[in-house]
Amino acid sequence: MSKVQISRFQIILALVWSVLGSGIVTAPFIITQFVIRDAWITLILFTVGGLVSTSVAALFVRVLPNRSLICGLIDALGPWLGRVFGLWILVWMYLVSCKTLREGTSFVGITILPQTPLYIIAFAGAIACSYAVYMGAEVVMRNGEFISPLALIVFPTLFALSMQHLDVQNLMPVLADGWHPVLRAAVTPDVTYALELLIGLQFAHMLRNNRTLPKDMIIVTGIITVLGILLAVVTVGVVGQSAGYLQFPILEAVRSIRIGRNLERLDTLYILGVMSTVLIKLSVFHYAWCEGMKDVFKLSSHRIVALSGGLLVWAGSIAGFRSQLEVNHFMISVAPAYFVVTLVGIPILAVLVMAFRKRAKRRVC
Amino acid sequence: MLFKKRGTKTKDLGNHPERIAGLVDTSYGRPDEPLPSRVEGLRAWIEAEWQHCDDLLLREVDVHGTRVLLLWIRGMVDQARVEEGVLNPVSTLPKRRTDIGHLESVLHTVHVRRVKTRQELNAAVSDGQVVLCIDGSKEALILDVSQPPGRTIEKAEIEPTILGPQEGFVENLELNIALLRKRIRSPRFKVESMRIGVYSKTNLCILYIEGITKPALVEEAHQRLRKISIDAVNDINKLRELISDAPYTLFPTSEETERPDRVVAGLLQGRIGFMLDGAPTCLKVPTQFIHFLTAAEDYYMHFTLTLFIRVLRHVAYWASLLLPSLYVALLSFNQDLMPTPLLVTVASQHRGIPFPTILEALLMMGAFEVLREAGTRLPRAVGQSVSIVGTLIVGDAAVRAGLVSPGMVIVVAGTGVASFALPAYGFVNSSRIIQFLFVGIAGLAGLVGIVVFGLIIVTHLVSLRSFGVPYMAPIAPFSWQDIKDSFFRAPWFANTKRPGQYETLDSVSNRTPAPRPPNKSHLGEGKR
Amino acid sequence: MRWSMLRKVVAAFVVSLGSLLLPGCDIKEVDDLNVVLALGIDQTDNGLVRVTAQIVNPAAVPSAGASESGNGATGRAFIVRVETGSSIEEAVEKFNQEVPHQMYLAHNTLVVFGNAYAQHGIERAFDYLERDRYYRRNELLVVTSGTAEDLLSASTIPDPLNAMGIRALVQQTGKMFRIANSEQQEVMQEYLSPSQAPVVSLVDLDPANHPVMKGVAVFRGAKLADTLTLDETKALAWLLENTRQVEIHLPCDGRGSNVGTTVRLIGSNTQVVPQFRKNGVSFLVTVRAEAEIERLCPYERMSEKTYKELEKKTAEYMEREIQAVVAKLQSDGVDASQFGTRLFTKNPRYWRQISQSWPDDFAKAQVTCNVRVHVFRSSLSSGTPESTVSQSGLAPPAGRGVTVP
After folding, report:
1. Prediction pTM value
2. Beta-carbon separation of A143 and B458 below 8 A
3. Contact B335 C106 (CB under 8 A)
4. Closest C-alpha among A265, A364, C206 to residue B340
5. Domain containing B351: what range?
6. Alpha-carbon gap: C82 to the closest alpha carbon of chain A (Å)
7. To the nearest 10°, the Cα dihedral for A89, A92, A97, A99?
């Protein structure tokens, strides 16, 4: 089997969907918990989070080139300590997968399949992802490539149509309550979601030249920031103050479309679009997780755990997050600190140790 | 597994090509032995070997005392040419020393060669050539006067076009190759021929253009062909299934065409072709999904028109795949996606239909498929009446009787028409099956099911490869260079490179500068 | 190699099984649905909620193909059913016990509040309408001064479906000024704005029992406070937003007093600037409008003077109307003009200080109008035919007789 290789374009798309895939579902709710009119400002701050994760990635690929995240940990921290930290990161990936599946499931369950049990929707999703993961990283990435143009047609159309209700007055006055709520709202999307970009490190060794990864992450940060601001402006402009109590404000912006008698109730299209992007995010994370398990447990192939792992994610999404409330609690209160420790702390530790070891070796020589 | 034993055998054989050669030979005794020098011995051997082959003709001629044996198969040769080019010269030979070298120079057929072994002799006879043996020579002369029965070149039937060349391949390999050579007059156009099939010994040609096609691709083709050990290969589909990349998929991973112009275009892109004697089509590999939605005519029209037609064709493909399932999903799950006036109309139409939508859809689609099959297999005259009875009378009666709703008839008919709009027949047939799967899913889970199943299909599609090239190539993995001939066709002057996905040796296909006409008139100067 | 093949087959099997298992719990055949187009919400005398549902009658839907089949339309295109319960959702749930086939609310396009219910406050309906997945926030909210049941039972010829007819009716006015097109999301925005004054369009029945657009109802919080006529609604629209294609009728002096003149405002543009003074807040309303002449006073000739006069008269009329509607709103204590919101947008800190006393401040607020109308075309005629008619015994005039600029 030849070496698996993915292109820069593919990793950019995969990372964009890794953030937007579920971010488009949950992030608006979390942001509007704290701030409505100034939601778009919190998304400008996404660049900060994106740059933080980019710099972590830049350090990592400079010191530990051509390795995936888990491989790098094992190489830097030694087979035992490295595996312990690797396991910690595996748990993180597993949790994020479960959370993503849960977000997607409850979104679909609440909106278009109210009478279908959640575990069945989740099962279908987990199986579809496991199949993609089973077929390999290239297939996961190409899935993303295939879905992106479709999303590029559906989403802008829907948002252009919902512009008819756009009222810029809803965004005024700017910063009426000062910076405090804006910064508080910015924590989750700009730390948690931005750090999720570091999943790209797990795919670093598949790039032709992994030095380009930080560059790609900057591009991704830019894309997400621009899209995020547009989304925030359109959503708040259309939905207005009601965003304060609605569960899915962006969905409501789409639901508001009504042009003549024939062009309305397009929200099902939006939900299906979101569903497929969530599945892409899920397969990216699931693949990273399986690949990590392969390295930690010295398996012959990630395929061994693709299906069983998918079932584990399915179980975890239902048992781990028992209600929508728990997902929101996880994202608002737990995730930021947990993600910082996992995704900034551990890679930086590995980088420092590796740098130290290199220097020690040089001195010996 | 079921295919276990056979699979192992094929694999083992692949490692020992000489064993295949042993298996492939069908002559009974001593194939590589030289021919006996006396005609009697030879004749005895031939009569034993070709026992009960009553179409074999043996003729012994006495040429100035030397016995000459002629043998050929009736019907495979041109009688007039045998008479004129072989029998006449032999009988009117001036009295001189008659040996094989002399005969070779006298005989007037186009192609004359010598053979030494019995195996070669057998092959030549089977190919419809006249074999001439002469007393005292251990060699025989092969005189090419073969004219196997077959039709002449006609218009392409499966892939007709209005514009552009009209020729289509026929069952004669030599004629087919000539059709290609006529279009690429260069020694770089390589035609490597080989025989496959233990009994059929069919002539197979691998076509490629040296200097463009990646050598590894040709090597891969050789490797796959070398493993073939089967009784007979008479049709291109048998070959396709034997060398396919993904044997179990519904989507074809190689492209079949009966148009020489399409083959030439493919070869110039850096792809290779397989042609089989007796098959009026050529198999092109590697093949991508997008090729099945391009027609020859796209290249004979202005590129702006091509854009429109191609987009239309893509829409038609997805419609032929999804239309019935979307209708079922809309009617039994996602009624909110319909505009209110439409829902009201549909609800009033569907009132009183005794079946649930899914069953109605399956019934109608099944009926449609049966009609389609009947229309294809029946003689043309009867086929006409079948389509009239089937579509007009049965469809209309079913609606009037209230068994199916008019909307369903429209949808199923629309699906059929959409699938007729696609240029690749084999590809369309796969979508005919997949649409049933989609309808089933739609009946169970509505639009969500369609999307999840669609994603699974997409995953399957992007995981396919054809001779190492990703099946969905210009889309996923994305390549700007290659997308220039996919959903649209870039004008020829902008399309300067060969598709990158085939990793051709020479990537530039076009060095013409873009037309920049001067902004002045050569005519009537000074009059304005 | 072979093993991976086997696994592929197993994987494919599990995958298809997984998709098949996604079961039809949400299946709802189109035959088994009652497509609800409108809900009417009334209050009974004993404080219960009476919900009227307008259901499409598939047996009687007129369609293009129906005339051929012969058994055509029998009865009305819609059915009206009524249920009573302590809340809307309870009453809606009761339909499922009393009407065969499932109620399908996703196509609901109209919610009518009866007068009594509106006076007691429509916020009781908000949470249900906002939360339930089947209601879209783009449905139209309408208030009627009678009962919702009567309005939903009326005939809206030529539209066979009452809800569609009423919605079309409201939208025709909504084209001129969006305030009349009170979709749920806009009502919610006004309800949640600092001014807290939703405006909902008012549709009543005329004596012939046909629905008519009567104007708008203004709410204080969520309680019905007052209703405005269509003319007053125009003035409210000039205060709030840009309008299009609004017609204004003006009286004429002299000979044509019984006919009057008509001006069509092609478009108007409104700006409201709050001004902070020592003794409170005042608002400067600047309206700029472009107009064309729909009809001129009889015997009027077209001249620069006529243009100017017409512009002046129109502007004066608009100012008068605006002041009148402001006065009415101030006496009702309803800030439907969204002055509070403007104030908040302009100066949120100041708004925080005075928001407690805003109802009083609003009643005292000074409004200064600055309306300027520009008549920029006179349609197909310049002068009137009367001005050109030849006086008895005289020859027809040689020309227009007046210097046209």
Report:
1. 0.89
2. yes
3. yes
4. A265
5. 299-469
6. 26
7. -170
